[in-house]
Amino acid sequence: MKKTHEIIEQAKAFENKLPEKKNFPIPNKDEIAGWIDHTLLKAQATVEQVFELCREAKEYRFASVCLNPVYVPQAVKELEGSGIPVGTVIGFPLGANLTHTKVAESKAAIEAGAVELDMVIPIGLLKSGEYETVYNDIRSVAETCHENNTLLKVIIENCYLDRFEKIVACLLAKEADADFVKTSTGFGSSSATVDDVALMRAVVGGLEEMGVKAAGGIRTWADAQNMIAAGATRIGASSGVEIVTEAKKES
Fold this sequence. Notes:
With 251 residues, the protein is an alpha/beta fold.
């Protein structure tokens, strides 16, 4: 990775300026489903709810389904031939697993058929300034993903970070060759905000450089539009059907 002091200096440069206000293009109401990871991550999710999630994904043509690792095999089977990718979560929701555990979990998920992984960084280590350790954690999972043609989204859990830490987390994820940075697990003290998405987009660069996924608390068509206008390229939501239905009702 870049030397730690280079990451810190780069982060300081971003911290001292506000992101340029941009309004990124919003997909139309017939395209929005293709921006949404249709999500079911609650602890009490049942097999029947997983089947329903997959049925809805096929009906509405969501970008993917995202569920806990134990349900990846069922989802892969249910979505076979549909073209809907299966995603899952790694080190979720605390990010405090050992790196080799995250790598093993990633390999198992990929072997089961997952092609998109959303991993949580070791949040406490980031806050402790252990940037090289955090980088190595992300990089190890990124290498596993890319050896297997799998996307990696890195959850930085913004609700626990100050502005400088958010910037550093994004820079580390980009340096580690992740495909996306992601706002939240949805299980923290607060969820995605437009300001955080705008900051993350400013740090990682243009739409063609890296993805930004907004997740947590996005329940309406207006919420989704606001996140995308701020720079999100993917939305994680358990309310995908409601968002799409509301969008199609809009005149």
